[in-house]
Amino acid sequence: MARAGAPRSPGREPPRRRGRQRYVEKDGRCNVQQGNVREPGRYLTDLFTTLADLQWRLSLLFFVLAYALTWLFFGAIWWLVAYGRGDLEHLGDAAWTPCVNNLNGFVAAFLFSIETETTIGYGHRVITDQCPEGIALLLLQAILGSMVNAFMVGCMFVKISQPNKRAATLVFSSHAVVSLRDGRLCLMFRVGDLRSSHIVEASIRAKLIRSRQTLEGEFIPLHQTDLSVGFETGDDRLFLVSPLVISHEIDAASPFWEASRRALERDDFEIVVILEGMVEATGMTCQARSSYLVDEVLWGHRFTSVLTLEDGFYEVDYASFHQTFEVPTPSCSARELAEAAARLDAHLYWSIPSRLDERAEEEGPSEGAGAGAGPGGDTERNGRLPPPESESKV
């Protein structure tokens, strides 16, 4: 299957403007930092999420410290119990019953703490029944150790299974394009999924990020406006098996309704696109994001086809995923294009009856009182019938 059009030539790209600070990076990272947080203790109220959001090196450090400090803490308590009972002073006394057999120092207490919490049970160091405080400490360490295990294993499992890595295989086109679709200007971009396991219940959204000033003079930085990508018709719900071109029709409700090509190039905005869905393998919700600046919107371009029909299957060529080619596109705004189309329709609407009138006048004298003449000699014009006979008599 041949692909229509030629790929966009690098020499035809519009000149790049001075770099604008992105709100969302191309890889989906939000370029926002939280500063001057006066109540950092709020993060501790949701410690599990805080640990899951940490970087991997910090998560591993916390994982190691959680176990090491717990072992050291209980090891110190076991040593204090042995020291307080005088077990360390009767190490060679066979008549003395210690709290823990063969616990002869802090290192032995630390090893016994590890054996207790991890339930290793080598059998060399063991608690005796003559130490009630040791039995209570053993129960406490077993319970707290299970809680530490559950908490840390849960954090590591969530950290490993986070669906943000799945978003790395959801790709967006490097540029957005503006061209005609069914006679209307549309802003379009392309999305694709590199994996064979699909995103379930995928949906797409688009936001226009642009600062604005209200009628009262209030300045709103980074104001967010929805760009319709088919919510009314259900086109925003995707069956993302092969790459899809997402279209935003520039109509009267669009913020680009009055933007021509030149006005668009002078504007300063960012379009953030958000793809959401559930990972088929795990059932977890996944979100992928990207953005387009003004110089990444190509006017008068269309995406190159990437889908070809092979012997018994369809093949996607991701080498052409980002390629576009130029197509004839008016440089005026969508509003001007709609007004021109309305004037053309009005001209055609009025020109057809006028031509019928001219033809009726030409044929009238030759035909006389023919089928077009009614009572009183009135001729049918502009598609209107003569008045009924009863009305003419009145």
UniProtKB/TrEMBL annotation:
InterPro entries: Ig_E-set, IRK_C, K_chnl_inward-rec_Kir, K_chnl_inward-rec_Kir3.3, K_chnl_inward-rec_Kir_cyto, Kir_TM. The lineage of its organism: Eukaryota, Metazoa, Chordata, Craniata, Vertebrata. Keywords: Ion channel, Ion transport, Membrane, Potassium, Potassium transport, Transmembrane, Transmembrane helix, Transport, Voltage-gated channel. Residues 10-22 have a biased composition (Basic and acidic residues). The record marks 149 as: Role in the control of polyamine-mediated channel gating and in the blocking by intracellular magnesium. This is G protein-activated inward rectifier potassium channel 3. Residues 367-377 have a biased composition (Gly residues). Associates with KCNJ3/GIRK1 to form a G-protein-activated heteromultimer pore-forming unit. Interacts (via PDZ-binding motif) with SNX27 (via PDZ domain); the interaction is required when endocytosed to prevent degradation in lysosomes and promote recycling to the plasma membrane. The keyword Cell inner membrane does not apply. Residues 385-394 have a biased composition (Pro residues). Belongs to the inward rectifier-type potassium channel (TC 1.A.2.1) family. KCNJ9 subfamily. It comes from Nyctereutes procyonoides (Raccoon dog). Residues 1-22, 355-394 are annotated as: Disordered. One of its GO terms (cellular component) is I(KACh) inward rectifier potassium channel complex. One of its GO terms (molecular function) is G-protein activated inward rectifier potassium channel activity. GO terms for biological process: potassium ion import across plasma membrane; regulation of monoatomic ion transmembrane transport. The chain crosses the membrane at residues 60-81, 135-158. The keyword Transmembrane applies. It comes from the Eukaryota.
